[in-house]
Amino acid sequence: MKSFLDYKESDLNLFTDFYELAMCASYYDNNKNEPATFDLFIRNMPKNRSYFLFAGLEQVLLFLKNIKFTDKQLIYLKKHNFHTDFLNYLKNFEFTGDVWAVPEGSIVFQNEPLIRITAPIIEAQLIETFLLNTINLQTMLATKASRVVNEAKGKPVIEFGLRREHGLDAGMKVARCSYIGGCKGTSNVLAGKCYDIPVFGTMAHSFIMSYRDELDAFRAFTKTFPNKTTLLIDTYDNIAGVNNAVVIGKELENSGYNLGGVRIDSGNLTEISQQIRKILDDNGLNYVKIFASGDLDEYRINNLLNNSAKIDVFGVGTKLGTSSDRPYLDVIYKLCEIRDEKGGFSAIMKLSEGKSTLPGRKQIYRYKNKKGYFDHDLIGLDNECLLGDPLLEKVIDEGKLIYNLPSLESIRNRAKENLRCLPAKYKALESSPEYPVKLSQNLLDMIRRLTRKLKNE
Length: 457
What we know:
Blueprint: H1 18-29, E1 35-42, E2 52-53, H2 57-66, H3 71-78, H4 84-91, E3 98-101, E4 107-108, E5 115-120, H5 121-126, H6 128-151, E6 157-159, H7 168-180, E7 185-186, H8 189-195, H9 205-209, H10 214-224, E8 230-232, H11 238-254, E9 261-264, H12 269-282, E10 289-293, H13 298-306, E11 313-316, H14 318-321, E12 331-339, E13 345-347, E14 362-368, E15 374-381, E16 389-390, E17 393-397, E18 400-401, H15 408-421, E19 437-439, H16 441-456
Parallel strand pairs: 6-7, 6-11, 8-9, 9-10, 10-11, 15-19
Antiparallel strand pairs: 1-5, 1-12, 2-4, 3-5, 3-17, 12-13, 14-15, 14-16, 17-18
C-alpha cells in the first residue's frame, strides 16, 4: 500500500477531476480540438471580503511548462477504458497555447479574468482542475494574511499555523502566501528553506513542564539560546512567569546579552499584556517585546489594539492557515470564445441564473485617482484601446514561457504596493463598500447581442 507521500512531481499531470479526462477523450474521439479561450475568475465577492490578493501564478506556469504523461500514467488510464488512440495522443501531450495573466501579488476583484487561456480545447480543458485548485487555495490564503497584517498596524505578524493546516502541501503554501500577504515569517522550517522565508519559534508549554521549576526551564533554554530568547510565561501564572523572566533578563544582561521577548498564549491578552509591560518597564526591561498568540485573527487583533493591548508581535496560526472565516473562494474557469467554421473566434457566454459569464477575450484596465489610489476597474474587450493601466500580461506564447518569474520578495513588494494603493475603506473589516468594477460599452453591447441570440435560439 502506497502512502500519500509516494506521488512525484511528474504525477501532477493526473491531478485532475476524472470528468476533465472524459471530456477530452470525447473531444478527441469526435475530432474536436479547435482553439478556444477560457477565463479563470472569482465569481462573487463574499460578504466578509472586499478585495482579493492574487497568488499561485508561479505554480500554474511551471505546471503548464512541464506537463507530460508517462508510460505508467497511461497504463493506469487504460484501466479506466480510455481508447488507445486517445492515450497515444496523451503520450505526446504538451501545452501549446497562449496564457495571459495578472501578475502575482496584484489586488483583484470579482468577475475579472485573472488568467486567460487560449489553446486547443483539449489542452485548455485538461488543465482546468489544477488551475482552479491552485489559485483558489493561494489567493484565499494571501488575502487572509493581508487582512491580518493590515489590522496589526505595522506590528510584525508571524504565521504559526502549520500543525493545524490541511496537510503538507497546504502547510507549504500557507507559509508562502502569508509572506506575500505581509507576514514577517513563519514557523515552518521546510518553507523557510524552500522559499527563503525567515523562520521563528519560541518554546512549548511541554518544555516548561518538563522541568521541576519554571525558572530552571527558562535558564536551560537561555543557556542554549542566550541571544534574544523569547520565554513562554503563561504555563502556570502570567505574573509569576514575567517575574521569572525579569530574573532571566537581569542574568542575561550580566552576561552581555538581552532577553528578546516574552510570549503569552492565553487569558485576557489586553489586561495581561498591560500588566506585563508595566512589570518589564519597572525593572528596566523596556526593550523586551511582548509576543502574543492563541486563536488570533484580524478581528481579534483589531479588538486588542483598539483596547490598548501592549503587544509588540503577533503569532497567528489556525485561523490564518485555514482562512477560518472564508475557507474557499468561488473560483471559476469558463469558456468565453471558440473558433468558428470560418476560422475566426466567436464569443460565447453562459446565461444560467446567478451564474452568467462574460463573453469574448477580455482585458482588465485599472484607473487611479489624483492621489494615486485605486479608483475603479474596467473590464473591456481585448481589442479595445482604453486609457487605464492594463493588468493582464502575456506570460506563455505558443507553449513557451516568456515571462521572467519574479522572486518571492518581488511578489511580496508588489502586494505591499497594491495594498498601499487600495483605499482604506476597502480594507475595513466591517461595512466595507464594494469596489467599482465596470464593463466597457463594447462589452455591454456584445452581452446584449449574445443574450438575444441565445434566447432566440
